[in-house]
Design goal:
Strand content: 25-35%
Structural class: alpha+beta
Helix content: 25-40%
Distance between the termini: 62 Å
Number of domains: 1
Order of helices and strands: HEHEHEEHEEEEE
Number of strands: 9
Largest sheet: 5 strands, mixed
Shape: globular
Length: 171
């Protein structure tokens, strides 16, 4: 092996060794894109997860909400604590994303707000809090499974708001 190749070889493996040492540092990014990390300021400390390292998307394992008595939309509208249409200037989308655990319980709620052009927006606090409270009250979850193993999953519900009124609710 000539001298230049030997130097390149040593340099290459030195860089690999240094890079592997750096990967042992804690990353500021979640393991998986979209993970919802525990936040002690807003999340329940007693919220149980079957496997915190394996929370999947609801549509991959079939997590659903009960269809009896009108289902998800009906229960949310029943749980709303404010009169709709109060603020006619509010239009866009509010998405609530959260975890449904293997027992059918929910927590780790996160709110995302967008205007009609899908740009970040800040809705009126009363509207957001009313929707969030209504979603937190949902208690008829059918937990999804993979190969008969019940699993924790992420779920999301998006509200289309037009002139302060909820026009559609979509999981």
């Amino acid at each position: 092996m000539n001298r230049n190749y030997r130097i390149q070889f040593i340099l290459f493996f030195s860089i690999i060794a240094i890079a592997s040492c750096k990967t042992s540092e804690k990353s500021s990014f979640p393991e998986k894109i979209g993970d919802i990390d525990f936040d002690p300021l807003v999340d329940r400390k007693d919220f149980y997860l079957c496997d915190p390292s394996q929370i999947v998307q609801y549509y991959n394992i079939g997590t659903t909400y009960s269809d009896e008595h009108g289902g998800l939309e009906n229960d949310i509208l029943k749980n709303l604590q404010m009169k709709q249409g109060k603020n006619k200037s509010e239009s866009g989308f509010i998405t609530i994303r959260f975890v449904v655990n293997c027992k059918g319980e929910t927590d780790r709620f996160r709110v995302y707000e967008l205007d009609q052009s899908l740009q970040k927006k800040k809705f009126e606090t009363e509207l957001v809090n009313s929707i969030l409270t209504a979603v937190k009250k949902l208690d008829k979850w059918k937990v999804g499974a993979n190969k008969n193993e019940i699993m924790d999953s992420y779920f999301r519900i998006t509200f289309k708001i037009v002139n302060g009124e909820i026009k559609s609710i979509r999981p």
